[in-house]
Amino acid sequence: xxxxxxxxxxxxxxxxxxxxxxxxxxxxxxxxxxxxxxxxxxxxxxxxxxxxxxxxxxxxxxxxxxxxxxxxxxxxxxxxxxxxxxxxxxxxxxxxxxxxxxxxxxxxxxxxxxxxxxxxxxxxxxxxxxxxxxxxxxxxxxxxxxxxxxxxxxxxxxxxxxxxxxxxxxxxxxxxxxxxxxxxxxxxxxxxxxxxxxxxxxxxxxxxxxxxxxxxxxxxxxxxxxxxxxxxxxxxxxxxxxxxxxxxxxxxxxxxxxxxxxxxxxxxxxxxxxxxxxxxx
Length: 281
Known about the structure:
alpha+beta; Beta-Lactamase; 2 domains; about 25% strand; LuxR family transcriptional regulator
């Protein structure tokens, strides 16, 4: 458990990190480095969200189950325990605390994360009067031990300055207008199975997916933003959350796109995800 001085130094570090400029991805990386000094973690998933719908759009993650990413996202949206859309004051929840130590009450843990020896998750939402800008899950795995009340208090106190910084990073994307000729793009379509497996996509979709979530090492782009929108559709159909399955996300150079999901057919054999150019948040 961190001492008061460690929490205080990290809190000052977060304020300093939030003052710096840059895109939301680099900002989140800097803040994670500071958080780790006071609240160690073994894995994380930090998503920007559409401020109106709270649907994830621009993920930054390092988790041990990347090979099962579609299932992770689908189950995350179907899980009501510690769901970011239900967090308010405080804006932090610890899975061990929320379940009374019965982690199986969490669907994503029961159906997936228990196989990765996840022992606790600290969830934080970054929301203000303008909307929900982001949510962060920090994981403890194996013998790391659960998050403490002190950890939760530290994350709760950090939420306000981090929220302001994330909102500012999004606003700065409108300072530079999109280059001429890029104000409109052709509709881009992904066809996903109910398990969020890509069945088909239009020719230009892959290039935009690469811009949305830059892959490492020349790997094929992962349609994580599309997974999130489709997963929200599943949450709506299951009655877990009623926000629209839609997210607006900045691609590059002032260009924003909107992702939407809808079901094809009555039987629900596939998801239809359309990406079109959109205005700002």
